[in-house]
Amino acid sequence: MPSYDAIVIGGGTNGMAAAGRLAKAGQKVLVLEWRPTLGGGAELSHLINVLDDRVEKELQLAKHGLSYADDNVSTTALSPSGEHLVFGGSFGETLSGVSAAEAKAWSELRARLLAHAATLKPFKQMTPPRLAQKVGNDLVSLAKHGLGLRMRGKVALQDFLRLLLINVFDVLDDELTDDRLKGLIAHDAVLGAVMGPRSPNSLLLLLNRIAGEKLKYPKGGVAGVTVAMSKSITALGVEMRTSTPVQSLVIENDKVVGVIIGGERIDAKRVISAINPQTTFMKLVGARHLDVGFVRKVEAIRMRGSVAKLNLTLKAAPDFRGANLRSRLVIAPSSKAVEEQYNFVKYNEFSPEPVMEIVLPSAFEGGPHRLSANVQFAPTAPRGGWAKAKPQFLKAIMKQLELYAPGIGKLVTETELLTPEDIEKRYGMIGGNWHHGELAVERMLFLRPFGGMAQYETPIRGLYLGGAGAHPGGGISGAAGWNAAHHILKEKRA
Predict the structure, then answer these.
(1) What is the pTM (predicted TM-score) of this model?
(2) Is residue 202 located within the same domain as residue 236?
(3) pLDDT for 121-141, tens place per residue?
(4) Angle at 206 between CA 475 and CA 211, to 5 degrees
(5) Tens of pLDDT along 228-251?
(6) In whole angstroms, what is the distance from residue 213 CA to residue 337 CA?
(7) Domain boundary pick from 410, 427, 444
């Protein structure tokens, strides 16, 4: 019977990061992925900006082939009139297409937002503390980060606490006047979330998003990251099996001792689940091993999706009214428009004039003309089901694209639209939710995936969470997996 120090369930970026961290410490590790390829939901992304620097450096991803076709991708807020706004550098470091007064107002707001985002960034790389003081809490690090916030001064602290729970719509309305700029920021704040710009906490999601680096387009697309990660951990001795779904965990005396795959038992001292928490507990562990209160908390995790993925193959490059195709293109006319389109999701309807971000991979690397778009807003379960709604939603998306890129419909040779339902089936993301559970203030840090669970530990000894459902959430980062593995090794040393 084969045996390992650790088995990692899920071969996405978090799973591979966890495996790599453990392997570097001399652990014998096995990664099990149910899909035929590694990378998980990373395929849904087309740019990166939050890849954890520990993952990139410690796994020597550059040595294993990671490089960038463009490491400073600009964003173009599209206008149907061709009067586009261009957002360059790190989170709008440069801004063109607006008045001098608007540029000044943006510069001042940007400085405040980046300062607050920098306050949050260190928390992403630490094990979240428990509410109760307990051995194992990194109270020194927590106090250090808290002191760093306090040292910014009373005014900055008050502004941070005020903005933490406010909505992004009001902040943008107070500080800016250009609808294109407000639409772009509002779009980015709620991308991947089931909320609109007026929703409470929407500014916090923006701060979480911009606590990264410049937008980058890896050579080979985001697959360039996952391929480099797989090569790195293979070199470290990690064994990987694809097309290998885990049927269940082997639990003895409330401790995980292995997994069952294809009727075969594989033993391990510990298991790290980098897949959805609900799948982990309700299918792999089973309710019989958990108390009723815990099961209720697991079932209460909100797993709604809001984004559809559109892939188009084109016979020629489209013309977005003169916009630079080697940039991220965003259709979000105003913050009000983003809010109005979100309103449809509240009633389980798709957005009739969707907002979206668009990347043309062929503009960065050549080859066949392709368009990749993340489209909002798409409900998890529309009225009448997606079988009926999907053709109608695709028609609405193409109508919106036609407004900004006249004639694009005639260029399309192949179309693939992945609804939240399709995303769940293909990637195992329940509800099509990117983060394996909604990101909100009550579902972050030590409250992720819910109160009473923290530090990547579970009620089953030897079982840990290391995916997007754990702190700090999703994104092409690897932080959750790396943090979980780091915590395990620290616990082992103790």
Answers:
(1) 0.91
(2) no
(3) 777 777 776 655 554 555 455
(4) 60
(5) 999 999 999 999 999 999 999 999
(6) 28
(7) 427
